Amino acid sequence: MFDQKFRKHWRSYVLQSGLAALTVLVLILVLTTQEAVLVASIGASAFIVFAMPNSIAARVRNVLGGQFFGLICGGLCYLLPHSGSFSLALVCALAVGLSMLVMVSTNTEHPPAAGTALALALEGATLEVLVTVMASAAILSLARLIAGKKLRDLV
User: Fold this and answer.
1) Residues 46-89: pLDDT tens digits?
2) Are the C-beta atoms of 70 and 115 separated by less than 8 Å?
């Protein structure tokens, strides 16, 4: 039931999970936002940064760039006309697809950023949302840089 590496490296599992939880706690307390989908996206970013620190998606370029492009794509898609549930679904699908296209073509792949794009396509962008997402991405990236080689891949 447990990962075979858990017994040998349980301290890393506990420490890195704790760091992720602590970072998300600080982010939510300091950068309060009412948008639950964005908070979920930040939680997913924290998972990648602390559970898979050596993955491409955890690199600073990917966390910051991916979230930036997710914001841009989602915000632009929100501006498209969407009055009914079908047109809203199309706008949301476009936001996810467009953010994916931009991230993979710019080497800034960060899967939670597709969730950011979806959230903005649904709710629109405010200055608070833009600041919250980019500050969260920056803080997560800074935490990863500070922890450096002490973080191990848990996945």
Assistant:
1) 999 999 999 999 999 999 999 999 999 999 999 998 878 889 99
2) yes
Q: Rounded distance, CA 79 to CA 125, Å? A: 10
What angle, 0 to 180 degrees and rounded to 10, lies between the N-to-C axes of helices 36-51 and 127-147?
A: 10
Of 83, 82, 91, 81, nearest to 119 by C-alpha is 91
Residue 63 near residue 110 (C-beta atoms within 8 A)? yes
| Euclidean distance between CA atoms 41 and 51, whole angstroms | 15
Q: Supply the angle between the helices 112-123 and 36-51 in degrees, to the nearest 10.
A: 170
DSSP assignment, residue 84? S
